[in-house]
Each structure stands twice: as C-alpha cells, then as structure tokens.
Amino acid sequence: MTSPNKDFIYHIGTVGTPWGEAEKQQWLSEQQIKRSYKDEVVTALQQSLPDTAELLTYGTLDYSAFDLPTYELFAVRSKNWQEGKPVVLVTGGVHGYETSGVQGALKFIKEHFNDYSDKVNLLVLPCISPWGYETINRWNPKAVDPNRSFGAESQSDEATQAMAFVRQHSGEILVHIDLHETTDSDNSEFRPAKAARDGTVNHNWNIPDGFYLVGDSNKPEAEFQRAIIEAVQKVTHIAEADEQGCLIGEKLVQFGVVNYPKRALGLCGGMTEAKFVTTTEVYPDSPKASPEQCNAAQVAVICAGVDYALA
Ligand SMILES: [Zn+2]
Questions:
Q1: What is the pLDDT of residue 202?
Q2: Distance separating alpha carbons of residues 103 and 180, to the nearest angstrom
Q3: Which residues are within 8 A (CB) of 62 and not within 5 positions of it... i.e. 6 or more apart?
Q4: Which ranges of 117-243 would DSSP assign to H, the alpha helix?
Q5: What pLDDT is attached to residue 8?
Q6: Which residues are in the Peptidase M14 domain (predicted)?
Q7: 10-residue block means of pLDDT along the chain (311 residues)?
Q8: 80 CA distance to ligand 1 centroid (A)?
Q9: What is the Cα–Cα distance from 84 to 174, expressed in whole angstroms?
C-alpha cells in the first residue's frame, strides 16, 4: 500500500475533517461545464433511434437551486414490450465522466438494439448523470456519488429516478449490465476528493492497465463473466492482477474479474434481482486503447452478456 503523499492531499478542506456546506460549495464553484449533454447524448439519440425502439423521458434533474441547468433524463426501450420475454437492462453514465459508458450505450442502441428486439425486452438508460457528463465528474452537484446511492435514503436524484423508472417495468430482469470506466483521474482527482470530503486518508492504488469486470459477490456467475471477457479480448486488452493478486485493491476471483457486494454498497448493479449482473471497467487512458475501442468494448460486453444469458 502506498503511503499518503503530498500529491494525494486534496486542496479543499482540512485533512481528517469531513467537509461541511462551505467546502462542498467551494468544490461545486470549481466545476465547469466542458461538453454538451444535449448535443452528444440527446441529439445523438434522437438522430439514430432504431425502428424497434422508443425514446422517452423518465424524469428531470432540477439543479436550479444551485444555479445550474435542469436536465431531462432519457431512456430507450423496446417499442413492442412483450409480457413473458426476459428484460435486459443497460445503464450508462452513472458516473458521468466515464465517457465510453455513455457513448458505448449509444453505440449499442444504434448498431445492435434491433438485433435483440425480437428476443428480449430492452431497457437502456444511457446517461444517468447528465451534469456529471457535462462537467466530467464522478459526483452530482451535492458532492454525492450516485454509484453509492442505489438504496434507501439515497442522496442522489440520479439514482432514485433511475430506480423508480426501472421498477415501473413488468417482467423479470434477466441481465443488468452497468457501463463504467476506471481512469487515471480516479487517482489524481476523485479518490483524493472523496477522502477529503469524508475526512479520511487516501491510499492510492495502481490503476489497472486494461479492461476488467466487477461481478456481484452474491451471484458471481463465473461462466457469464468469462464469456464476456473472451468477447472483450477481441476488442481490447484485459487488465492483469498486480503483485498482490488484486485490481483496485480487490482480490481477483478469475481472469479480469473482481466481485463486490453490490447491493450492500449501494451500487447501480445491485438495484435489480437480475440473475446475470456485471459492471464494466474500461480503461480509456491506456496508450493501447482508442476511444473507439473503449466504446466497442462496452458494446461487446452487452452483446456477449445477452447472448450468454439467452443461450
Ligand atoms: Zn464508474
């Protein structure tokens, strides 16, 4: 374990003391809009919607109290939702900064949605955290991580609205794939910021070079994960374990896979009763992976995961 180093001390707050409202306000004042959710997500969806899909809004994120924009939340769903068919849920952009999670979901919708529409009911929430997408952020404006907020007493409107919308749908959710990335900025920005916010000390770990999956400790489904890793290997490289046999501080359970107890942690991947669950972790900062490869890796996971579950 690396000892805490000056570089890892965040510039807001006092080491060892959790942030109050003033520190959260300072943090928020430093965030800037860097790209457009409307152009890169909403318009892209509207312009490339497959004929078996319908685009709908499932809520609004109102951040006017923070002098920030209000965001409409969009989902893409099978137009012909049929009782008795299994449901496949895909979620992207729970962490808005993880670009290929959003763009990979859009690519899947554009290129593969129609392929699966006669076999399953599809439900895709491509960008759960639009402000995070625009500001390239892990948290929402309240300095809350939506991906620790999928549970009771959630402090994230992003999470509560996604959960409420998914629950409205009939049928058994067979597969849930949640699209993420692990980035160099996790160590340079987001983990130090979290430690500062919580009044704890940050111990950085190595960011793995390559793709990996996070399964659910309560339903690991090793063969499902293996089938996905094999599909992704055709697109990009898989992360190797570090000297301790770990990825991001967690013991590897099989090649390219670590497991977390998703529901207990309030992770998006724990919000359903789906039998087959996985979270992708694409590494976009690798010199060996282009943005196109990262998006393609996300798509490969969805297709391989659904193919395995239906086989
Ligand atoms: Zn993430």
A1: 84
A2: 11
A3: 70, 157
A4: 130-135, 157-167, 184-185, 191-198, 222-233
A5: 76
A6: 33-311
A7: 57 95 98 98 97 98 96 97 96 98 98 96 98 98 97 95 96 96 94 96 88 98 98 97 93 97 97 98 95 98 98 95
A8: 31
A9: 12
Task: State how far the Cα of 107 lies from the Cα of 88, in Å rounded to an integer.
Answer: 16
Q: How far is the CA of 215 from the centre of ligand 1 (A)?
A: 14
Residue written as token pair 């896979």: 257
The CA-atom distances, in angstroms, between 30 and each of 24, 66, 98, 143 are 10, 13, 19, 12
Distance 146 CA to ligand 1 centre (A): 9
Q: What confidence score (pLDDT) does residue 205 get?
A: 82
For residue 216, the surrounding DSSP H or E stretch is strand 212-216
H/E element holding 106? helix 99-116
Q: Which CATH number applies to 21-310?
A: 3.40.630.10
Give the distance (Å) from ligand 1 centre to CA of residue 100.
Answer: 11
Domain boundaries, the chain: 21-310
Retrieve residue 279's tokens: 């979270």
Q: 36: number of CA atoms within 13 Å, CB side?
A: 6
- Report the alpha-carbon distance of residue 307 to residue 222 in Å, rounded: 15
**Looking at the whole model, is its pTM more than 0.90?**
yes
Which of 107, 100, 119 is CA-nearest to residue 44? Answer: 107
Over the Cα atoms of the chain, what is R_g? 19
Number of H helices and number of E strands within the chain?
Answer: 10, 10
Cα 283 to averaged position of ligand 1 atoms, centre (Å): 11
Nearest in space to 214 (alpha carbons), one of 244, 257, 176:
257
